[in-house]
Fold:
Amino acid sequence: MHTDRRAAWRGIAIVSALVLVCTGCVTETVSPARPAPVQGPTATGRSSSPMPTQPVATPARDARTVNAILRAAITPLGTIPFDGQVLPMISPDGRFAATQVGQTPSWSAMLVEPDAPPSPRTNVEVYDISSQPVRLVREGFDLPPGTMLGRSCDESGFLVEHITPMGERRVGNVSWRGGDVEWFEGGTATLVEQGIVATTAEQALKTPWGEVREPGSEMWFPVSSGERGLVYCFAASHRGLELQAWSRSVRATSEGMSADSSMSIIARRRIAPRAERILAYQAVDPVRGWMGAGSEEPPGLLFFNPGTRRMTVFDANTGDLVPLAAESISGVWTRDAAGWGVLLSTSRGLVYQRLEESRSAWTASPEARLLGEPYVPRATMDPTRPSILIGPARDARRVNLVALQLMPSDLEE
Structure:
């Protein structure tokens, strides 16, 4: 790794301001002073993209929990440790949190670079956040030293990554209940409805439907949106950094349409002129965990666009990029009777946008601010606390978790 990539990069913080100051279930409707803008990631050339020397998610510590448009009830759940860099994943049922603890891995390990060193002082712990106080789940969870938190989870388990002392990289699927782990070869991975999609040593993708490979491209970070038979991947090519959508092939038979085991690319967009792993990491890290799609298929893939510095939806059906709120840096899907929406962390606070479909194209409604400061949201299936927000604790190596539930508003805009 080049020396200049190890230098300070103050502008990379994906979440430079998280807030959490509450001691009980709180609802407020006062309007806050506008917070200072968040300085987002920089999408530039190799020489100007050194590795961060601070957490990609850094909590801020001086703000009030407020709500200018809607009423939001927030209930503290407790604090859990983290490594100061990677924020926890929440189980879809909202009961558990998986968190990376100990020494922060090297950036080469986090970026899945070849020959990245092991991180023996890093590990992953699971906490029961449905109990009061939250408690460390010790029974069954015995992951090897050097285990790193992955980027994907479902109702059954969550993914971890591990570099063995011999330098071999593998991916594990850990059960939320019991801690059983199944290991697979691969660099990094995502969960889909029929198994795991993982990168290979040859920079291809190994999927339940066959291997995905494109001449001249390196497949770096696979990610799932919850759309069936569809896998997205951030890939390097001569075009730069691309976001590609790969779908199972469908063919006509005498009995109707049938999906076979092959994969084909159905949409692609260039999101940066130069292919850099750090930019791909920035794009996928804000959507770590379960994205809130449930049994429904969302409008597309949520990701952070390093070129426009905002969360964006990639619609694989049309190839369109749908920009979301300016300076949005993290987000999750929401769905109600009226349709799809997104809960977003921005420099102006936690905001909501609804997605509306017109003439086969998606557009985002104007944002509605929910809370006055930018929490990092995680989605759950629990109707009593459909979102878990992540904020700072007094200890810089811990985070606060709070439950968010939106309430009917009695306010006028």
Remarks:
- The CA atoms of residues 169 and 393 lie 33 Å apart.
- The chain is about 5% helix and 45% strand.
- The first strand starts at residue 71 and ends at 81.
- The longest helix spans residues 277-284.
